[in-house]
Amino acid sequence: DTGVSQDPRHKITKRGQNVTFRCDPISEHNRLYWYRQTLGQGPEFLTYFQNEAQLEKSRLLSDRFSAERPKGSFSTLEIQRTEQGDSAMYLCASSPGVSVGLFFGSGTQLSVL
Amino acid sequence: KNQVEQSPQSLIILEGKNCTLQCNYTVSPFSNLRWYKQDTGRGPVSLTIMTFSENTKSNGRYTATLDADTKQSSLHITASQLSDSASYICVVLPNSGNTPLVFGKGTRLSVIA
User: Fold this and answer.
1) 3-class secondary-structure state, position B82
2) Is 80 exceeded by the pLDDT of residue A13?
3) Is A107 on the interface with B (CB under 8 A)?
4) Residue B67 CB: number of other CB atoms within 10 A?
5) Which residues of chain A from 57 to 86 reach within 8 Å of chain B, CB to CB?
6) Contacts of A53 (CB under 8 A, 6+ apart)
7) Nearest Cα to Cα of residue A33 among A95, A88, A97
8) pLDDT for position B100
9) In chain A, which residues have their Cβ closer than 8 Å to the Cβ of B101?
10) Which pLDDT belongs to residue A28?
């Protein structure tokens, strides 16, 4: 097990296009989180899954954003009709329990031109 | 409102010197407080996790302290190395169900030769 894996590492897209990111958590971690981080800021919570159930969703997650974790393992985050303001690092993290630290992936850096 | 404030925003020190980073939080009650190190372009990596009953925890040259009465934590780095250059993020887990982690904006540390 090599930790949380995110793909792609970098994504450049034109405004209006759709993008999808993938996260493979550490195996047997039932909790999976998506965060967004812009330069000089801490990560901002987007959404949280426990197994396949999406239990929490930030108001930051507009209707253009959707996340899934269909089998309780990997997760995808899709952004439709991207805007320049969506440019950020999208971080995925997994955890075996709330009292244990989050294990982050290296993130997907999105640039919307 | 749950908040985590970190200071200084950025810091430059000479290799071999010690430094202390500060974290003040208003999250109450809280379950635990974490310090993460984030290298540029990478996801955060956990350094320490402390519950409200712990006063200090060490991880090599990193020592975190916690004063739950004043709601302050510090991260002390001893004998700094060039590889310590990174952002250090203070994170608090509220003790209230599925409330997301509260992240500080981080302190950007640069260690120079």
Assistant:
1) helix
2) yes
3) yes
4) 10
5) 58
6) none
7) A95
8) 75
9) 45, 102
10) 86
